[in-house]
Fold this protein.
Amino acid sequence: MPEKKFTDHSEADAIADEAWVSVIQKMDETYADLVHYQVEIEQKNLELEQTQGFLDSVQSSMSDVLIVCDKQGLIQQVNTALEQLTGKASEQLLDQPFVELIAQPYRQKIADFQNQLRVQPVRDCEVELVGQDGLVPLAMNCSPRKDQRGRMAGMVMIGRPLGELQRAYKELNQAHAELKLAQERLIQSEKMASLGRLVAGVAHELNNPISFVYGNMHALQRYTEKLVTYFNAVSENRPRSELRELREDLRLDKAIRDLNSLVDGTMEGADRVKDIVRDLRQFSSCQEAEKTRFDFNHVVTTALHWIIKESNQPIEIDLHLPNKLEALGHSGQIHQVIVNLIQNAVDAMRDQPAAKLDIGAGETAKLVWFTLRDNGPGLPDEHLSRVFDPFFTTKPVGEGTGLGLSISYGIVTEHGGKLSIHNHPNGGVVVTLELPKQDPDKVGEGRSGEENA
């Protein structure tokens, strides 16, 4: 290409000036870009520092232990909580095998973490960390840490110290046990209070058969002395006439005829005492055994007999019970309920000139029912909704704890039954008790078994 020749120096200078202008413009643009990039880098660095500071503050404020490991189990990052537990700075922990921080019995479990992470994260695995003050129980969660290509690069482990949690659970269990014990004692004390109100009637009830047995034993003692006298004479080989005369004097023929009736009467009185003691023991026992079928009529009649014997006022009883009626549950507890219900009805009729109780019981295909109606003044409407509240009572101070109906309601509910109280249109209060014929827990177990089958 032929060399371009400028016609004069002015044209060459103009071209040179344009070139310099262009270079300067490029330099300005480049400098502006550099300044812009510098600003962006500084902004990014500031954001990175803020993010790093935020992450550091989060990690340092965590009460849970944080450990980040590589695929070989070497520690890459820890938080302040781990430093405080182990008493070691992060510089001492980095690049150290994590398994060395775990108590010996749990190291194999930790060694299996990496294989488990290929299937699913590890949740709430209990291990013990070797701390500066001894072993520290942890609930460990472990998740896989992946790189940009989605490959496993290590593990992230978070452990929650169980010391405070276990202590809280222990305190909660202790409080629950104490509350349950207090409830059992409260129930038992109320039962004993109810039993105390029946002592006079029961003592009178026991006195009759005991007196009968006592009298019969005295008669048997006299007859025994006569028989011993006669058999001593026989052993001495006295004449037959003398023996006959002695037999008539001792009236042995009458004594022998009376022996069977005396023994039968004594056995009958002893059986009556045994029945009364059994009912008392059944009433006063805690009875935590399994529910069984019991004679509901016997429970009702015994409770009614005790209350009426102890009562100082004449009460007309209209009792309607079937020939045979069985219920399912703890007979002693249901006995306590019936006693409380009858006692409350009798107390409500204390000032009634012609006190009367209507009592009935029966059964349907699914339940056993019991009703009790008094002819007392009834309850105000505002009290009906509170009669089962603990410590609520309409009796004067010192005459009632307010626990009888509350405990009775709890007993019936635990049996899967219902207890209700309402005013009768013609006056008085009606109490209705319903008990299921089958144990609700056993019915639920049967259904569950059928569903599983």
Confidence is low (pLDDT under 50) at residues 446-453. The chain is about 55% helix and 20% strand. The longest strand covers residues 134-146.
